[in-house]
Regulatory protein TetR (Pseudonocardia dioxanivorans), 380 residues
Amino acid sequence: MAGRPVDHRRRLELLDAVVDYAVENGFSELSWRPVAAALDVSTNTLVHHFGSKEHLLVAILGRLRERILAATAELLGAQHDLAAAARAAWEQTSQPARAAEFRLFFAVYGRALQAPEQFADFLDRVVADWMAALRAAQGPDVAPAVADREATLVIATLRGLLLDLLTTGDRARVEGAADRFLATLARPED
Amino acid sequence: MAGRPVDHRRRLELLDAVVDYAVENGFSELSWRPVAAALDVSTNTLVHHFGSKEHLLVAILGRLRERILAATAELLGAQHDLAAAARAAWEQTSQPARAAEFRLFFAVYGRALQAPEQFADFLDRVVADWMAALRAAQGPDVAPAVADREATLVIATLRGLLLDLLTTGDRARVEGAADRFLATLARPED
DNA sequence: CTATTCTTTAAACGTTCGTACCAGAAATTT
DNA sequence: AAATTTCTGGTACGAACGTTTAAAGAATAG
């Protein structure tokens, strides 16, 4: 038993660079050669580390989801209630600097919806991860059924608002709606 | 001045068939030849009517948006207030039979977000059309700023919930969140 | 040092892509 | 009937695609 060890760090380094590329240049027409050229490696370096195009796409979806979750998860954990967590999440995700990242997010999300078997892992986690975080933000005193309902509504509303913001760029209008939503959260009616 | 007239009906007939194809077979890898084979026409028939691949994609986005809007617009007009309109829209769009259509919707939406110049028309209308319908549903007595805010929130929330439903298929949970949202709409707090 | 495995690049393969060109059939006006 | 334009299908072309193969360099274990 000998030989050069597998370089997992190198794979992740390449993957992050590919995700960066997809953020900037789009996801729908991604192909080996332009990506490799942009990263200044040979196409076969990418093929070697990712195996096939299909595997690369799955890896991109996984890494992007991971990145987005990581950027907000710890922030959510520090909040004392759902309203605060939702506001923190909104303020984080609606930053102009992250717009391109979320445009890619919705692009890959839509693609995953049309190929659910190929991207099953993404679809399994893209809601569930946030559900877990937003359930936790409500503490142990909220009934599970209510916590689920509230978490679901927060995820849906924030994603829908983000979609609108990325579409229209009408920040004043979208922020107004976000404030309205976050205000109702702060004053639960039941 | 003579010659065979342009057959616009034929173009629309083909376009609808292409959209149907995209609903069933996905949008990301659409190409002339498989579509033409499925429609039992030559590839050149499609090229002749749509000009180029880019134009075809734009036409697909436009037609899909048009279809979805048409299926709901008149329904919304018949409602007497925003809560009723929102509920009608949700019941319409969350039908299992229309799931594939909305998976395509989110797929093309995501793609449009990463190529905003190419799909500017789609992006200009995909929010604005619904804004107009949901502003109208609130009647003339609601202040414009409030009507905008409420309409924005309804669009975002319903789209976010639909995204969740298509992702997880967890209808009970998503319906619960939808009911919660629609209930808050029925009892406006300010 | 040797053996082994991983990493990287270059070259080439067959396939599919979008598009252009051509010719015939169909539909309209004069 | 003649002229003109659209519609359709067959063929072909160059480009780009994903993938495979072969070979050289790098890093580990014995």
